[in-house]
């Protein structure tokens, strides 16, 4: 027992290393994890004090635990069995496939990342790129929503900036859990988006097992009261107008609501822009008749660097206004179920109608609409036309200075001339023929709000195109 044992230096170092790892894993790491966990819990408690809707424990659960809970859901287990039988594969192989889908879907929410980084970044980006305007809305309606209900923000999808704007504007209300598409599954962007609580979805997947796993996650989140945000249209609008809604996620939310003892309240949110950053990509995709477009992360970064250089050299200009409006909330308990009708389809139709009611009216979309409808005109005539159109529109939608129609026209004309959408000939402002697709793209966003009484007797081809696009 007391004899000397000689060891090579490398073996002695290896033994010490294993001993250190064992000590750390059994004594040090649990204490460190407990210390940081306690600090995190205190930080979340302080954040919850200033939020209208506190962060749900569901979002703070460990990602590993959530994945385990998801793959052992009874409906997922049945789907695994059915998938194995249909494909002729062992159930353990199908089970691992379900686990892979669960890892892909489940977020890893970090309160620190969301409230210390994401909110600040969203505020900075929004105000650096746009003049942000929050529309008038009934604050009492939003505050009257039952605290125990699950809230889902439903939005029209104009730009990928939608995520940034809404995150910034509802920062004092709650932490949102977005459903994001394949575009965000790019490293390192995907890690950041997961940390913000977003979950990834494959919008066109026909794999029944994947859809069952996704449905199970949405049901669990809905029952747990997670505040969610979704785009019923499923993707960016290629025409600029509202698109027909998809029903998948709404169906899963309805399924989750049927298994809980509390209500689900949908809050319509409408967004509009003087300039959509992806407008050229979207109008090109509309012309080609396919949604297969891709904005590479490298090109996006290069554009940001270019804009930063313009800011340094004093040549940077904002992209006009961006506006957000909140519509009338809709509780599932208020929605009357009609026999023979798909409840998810009826819900989607009603939500898109309420979103359409509050789409913001901004200078560039309004002037684009007028120029397409009435053709070339002088700036004075354009001012009169803006006054005529806005006089019969609901004031809640108009996100422009009241009784400053000259300023509205000057702002729109300056932006549109700089972007090559219009040109001047003497006193006349003329829409560029080569940019008609772009003008339609912006005009379509508000075409459904223009009173029918203001339509010209013979609208012609341009008006027909707007009506079809909207």
Describe this structure in words.
53% of the residues lie in helices and 10% in strands. The protein has helices at 9-50, 57-60, 63-71, 74-87, 91-105, 111-129, 139-143, 161-169, 189-195, 208-223, 248-257, 279-288, 297-312, 343-357, 363-374, 379-391, 405-418, 436-443, 460-469, and strands at 131-134, 150-155, 177-180, 199-200, 228-230, 264-273, 321-326, 330-331, 377-378, 422-425, 428-431. It folds into three domains: 1-50; 103-277 and 319-357, Glycerol-3-phosphate (1)-acyltransferase (3-Layer(aba) Sandwich), CATH 3.40.1130.10; 363-469, Orthogonal Bundle (Arc Repressor Mutant, subunit A), CATH 1.10.10. The protein has 470 residues and is α/β, with parallel strands linked by helices. The longest helix has 42 residues, at 9-50. The strands form two sheets. Strands 1, 2, 3, 4, 5, 6, 7 and 8 form an eight-stranded mixed β-sheet that branches. It has a three-stranded antiparallel β-sheet with strand order 9-11-10. It has 19 helices and eleven strands. 37% of the residues are buried. The protein is globular and about 105 Å long. Strand 3, helix 9 and strand 4 form a beta-alpha-beta unit. Helix 4 runs antiparallel to helix 10 (208-223), helix 11 (248-257) packs across helix 14 (343-357) and helix 15 (363-374) packs across helix 18.
